[in-house]
Automatic annotation (TrEMBL):
The keyword Metal-binding applies. Residues 41-117 form the Alcohol dehydrogenase-like N-terminal domain. GO terms for molecular function: metal ion binding; oxidoreductase activity. Keywords: Metal-binding, Oxidoreductase, Zinc. This is L-iditol 2-dehydrogenase/threonine 3-dehydrogenase. Belongs to the zinc-containing alcohol dehydrogenase family. Its cofactor is Zn(2+). SUPFAM superfamilies: GroES-like, NAD(P)-binding Rossmann-fold domains. The lineage of its organism: Bacteria, Bacillati, Actinomycetota, Actinomycetes, Kitasatosporales. The keyword Cytoplasm does not apply.
Amino acid sequence: MLDDLASPAEPAVPATMKAVELLAPLTPALSTLPVPGVPADGLLLKTRCVSICSTDISYFEGHLFPDVYPVILGHEYLGEVVQIGPDFDSSTPIAIGDRVVYWGQTDFGGFAEYRSVRPIFSGETKSDVYWADRYFHDDRMASAVKVPDDLDDLHASLIEPTTGALRSLLTNPPAPGDRVAILGAGPIAVIAGSVIKRLFAPHEVVCVDLNKHRNVFAKGQFADHAYVPEEFEETVPLNSIDYVFDTLPTVKVDDEDQDPRRVAMRKLAPRGKYVLYGASQEMQKFDTWLMLAKGINITAAPFDVHSFPMHRTANVIASAMHMIRSGIVDAGALQTQVCPFDDYTQLVEILRSYRSTHHMKTVIDFR
């Protein structure tokens, strides 16, 4: 009987692991690296699945850039607990073999066979704040949630992007009856659009994307209308949109007046809300005259943990998991491609062709 109650033994952990590193923009490499040690107050995880994020692509293409190279891409992560640090806070019961998803701590480290994490679970308030190089206070710990047995590995890796979208929507929600436009029709746009459509009682939700395959997918998931940019400019009246959710990456156009961000501002009604989600360290075009003329409210969910502490995001990640379990976010439909981690050639091709593919979420499978 006592044997039945004993915790599972820690599995053997090798000294080295395979990882996909980025040596410079557009320059990946398959490397052999030491397995990270377990943090005294954290966990060592064996990677099960990592979904590819547009942030990974922005780093890959050079629109976002780290302090130093090389870096290991990947952060939409699901791992299995293989070691528990001696000072781990046991107020949240975690055992060897449990599956964990996290949000925060770093944009990197996922495309590797092991990674360490210092988790904060819902109900905990600990923190380890530091000044980040990109002008905000970050936390060396990460919000986390334990994944229940009824949630598939491939779907569980979408908890992290759902958390990111939810942070923005809960901080800057549309009002009931708003006419909503979502810029982009990629995975974050579909997650945000699905939540808005099903929970925030909009009058209408439309999306705008160059990729016609993704527009078709968005119409099947949440969008009343899906436009390519020219159609959006020609069809949607000026001042007819109340709320814009911008998931676009870096945008470069020959005619600045046709920049989709400026077009969306023309469509916004006076005192409309413009929520910025897409991340880029390259400067983007915003129409300052329209901001003044219309009183457009441009806002975002802050990364800075003095404003949005990691322990609050720990509550959001728990909600994000329930969004997927309940079907509000259709993870099964979003996850359209699986690439084995062993197939390095396919993984690199996926990174290179991400912007033009008809796929939505690609999950790298380490199992």
